[in-house]
Design goal:
Strand content: 15-25%
Distance between the termini: 20 Å
Helix content: 40-55%
Number of strands: 10
Largest sheet: 10 strands, mixed
Number of domains: 2
CATH class of the largest domain: Alpha Beta
Order of helices and strands: EHEHHEHEHHEEHEHHEHEHHEH
Strand order of the largest sheet: 3-2-1-4-5-10-9-6-7-8
Structural class: alpha/beta
Radius of gyration: 21 Å
Shape: elongated
CATH architecture of the largest domain: 3-Layer(aba) Sandwich
């Protein structure tokens, strides 16, 4: 079962941030978690005109007040009386450190935030707050990119779980299964076969993994099925196995968009420094491009799984 007591939602009063609020409220309703609404007050920067100018105490009070109302100015406590809200302003030199610092201080179980999906030169120059949080957070992060009108809470009926057969992916699958049970959703387990082999194999004229193992897709499906059957509580969830070939980030994004996935749950290996610069991160690329929300489960730090469930998973 999920152990989720404190959710941090980063609000910047944009449309995508309002949509992220919908997912956060839905999850808080399902789990009883306290929802912390935090605004990152960046020095010399207020691009969304959150408040009118004034003294610092007055400014913070205005931001806290706005944090606790919906996009149509209805108080969140009136519209969602079954959710406990807390509002805070965290001041820092940049948004990501403010969000990460607040989540650490609250010992939050999960961070939820919108991402504006910047691409190309603008992203290269400005970076992405969401990607920075995903990269550095030592707890799961849910990013929401799509914008929808209205106040209805989003439904989660279909969850995509990319599987690379690492221990990290198995952990993401356990998280996805618990979320599927929470929302009565079904799972899609997807493995992407990187078809092209390393240049070292070219000497022998072998360029594709299919040349070495023609029945690889069948074997991968069998392994996916075995991995799924090993998950505690798997019998109560509907799951389908999928195998495609190509570049992982592109194929995951295409599958999610084509099959209208409501959520993608995947692990991130936490690459940093030169290794991250050279290789990039599949999780970050998916966060940047996929329309569906993405929950990234970290290879380190906090887990959403109950301690007993983690102990059972670690038992040989």
């Amino acid at each position: 079962m999920l152990q989720l007591d404190h959710i941090v939602l980063a609000r910047d009063f944009s449309a995508v941030s309002d949509q992220a609020l919908r997912y956060a409220i839905g999850l808080a309703q399902h789990t009883g978690a306290t929802l912390h609404l935090v605004y990152a007050d960046v020095l010399h920067e207020d691009p969304f005109n959150a408040v009118t100018p004034g003294t610092e105490p007055s400014r913070d009070a205005q931001i806290r007040e706005r944090l606790q109302v919906d996009a149509d100015d209805t108080p969140l406590t009136e519209r969602f009386a079954d959710v406990t809200f807390e509002a805070e302003v965290r001041r820092d030199v940049a948004a990501a450190p403010a969000i990460l610092g607040y989540a650490s201080d609250q010992d939050a179980d999960l961070i939820i935030m919108g991402t504006h999906g910047r691409r190309g030169v603008r992203r290269l120059l400005m970076g992405s707050v969401a990607e920075e949080v995903v990269r550095h957070a030592n707890r799961p992060v849910m990013t929401v990119r799509k914008e929808e009108d209205g106040n209805a809470l989003p439904t989660i009926d279909r969850i995509l779980v990319p599987i690379d057969f690492s221990d990290f992916a198995a952990d993401a699958l356990r998280h996805a299964n618990e979320l599927a049970r929470l929302y009565s959703a079904r799972l899609d387990l997807l493995h992407v076969i990187e078809e092209n082999l390393h240049p070292a194999f070219y000497v022998g004229g072998v360029r594709s993994i299919y040349d070495v193992q023609p029945d690889i897709e069948e074997k991968v499906r069998e392994r996916l099925q075995a991995l799924w059957e090993d998950v505690d509580g798997a019998t109560g969830t509907q799951a389908a196995m999928h195998v495609v070939d190509g570049r992982a980030a592109r194929k995951i994004t295409k599958f999610a968009d084509t099959n209208q996935s409501d959520l993608v749950v995947m692990s991130t290996h936490g690459l940093t420094g030169l290794e991250h610069f050279l290789m990039g991160s599949v999780a970050e690329k998916v966060v940047r491009h996929v329309a569906a929300p993405v929950l990234t489960v970290k290879a380190f730090g906090k887990s959403l799984l109950h301690a007993s469930a983690e102990a059972e998973a670690a038992t040989p």
